[in-house]
Amino acid sequence: MIRESHIQGFNIAGMENRLIVKLFADDTTVYLSEWDRFEDLEEILNDWCQASKAKFNIAKTEIIPIGTPEYRKYVVDKHRIGPLSEEIPIAITITQDGDSTHLLGAKIGNNFDEQKAWNNVVTKVKTSLDRWAASRPTLEGKRLIAQLTLAAQTQYLTQSQGMPLEVAKTLEKILHSFMWKGSRSGAVSKEILSMKHEAGGKKLLDLQTRNDAVALRDLRGQHGHMW
Predict the structure, then answer these.
(1) pLDDT higher than 80, residue 4
(2) Per-residue DSSP letter, 10
(3) What is the pTM of this model?
């Protein structure tokens, strides 16, 4: 219904079709241009709910302004997405600059502190590694644990919004402490531990290399082949 409507959505260079809606499980993200009318979307949703006997959760609806700082301020101050749209219902939250909201497990917004979005993840990783350390695993066991905890628990957020350098440094310190029982200097350097087995290493997670690989994969996905 939304794709067949008069909603313009976003025209993005390199994309054949307009970006109007994305669906994942029970989450729906709709993209409205400043020339769209919010009430048109409401009408579509009401028709869909009536036909499907479902109930749309207005309380969980949030609007994230996208565009220049001036346009974002206009949306917040006027409580409307553009000159053709009526006012957005007061029950619907508009995310202001400096704030963020959750979308499929990631935090998105404008000019918010991305490092804060990582605080819970960093705490979770440290708690997991501290718990494992109590069982006194071998060096090889620690390598596997690092892969199952630190690598796994940071993969999604790194892919969705990138990992700030300060967060990476903090996680590297946590990993070092786990590998060497809190000692500031390890018996073997991180560089050697990160090498392949045939080169004398342990294939320990190299966080920065992993992050660079994620960024490169995303870049290729956005622009096709780089050369």
Answers:
(1) no
(2) B
(3) 0.70
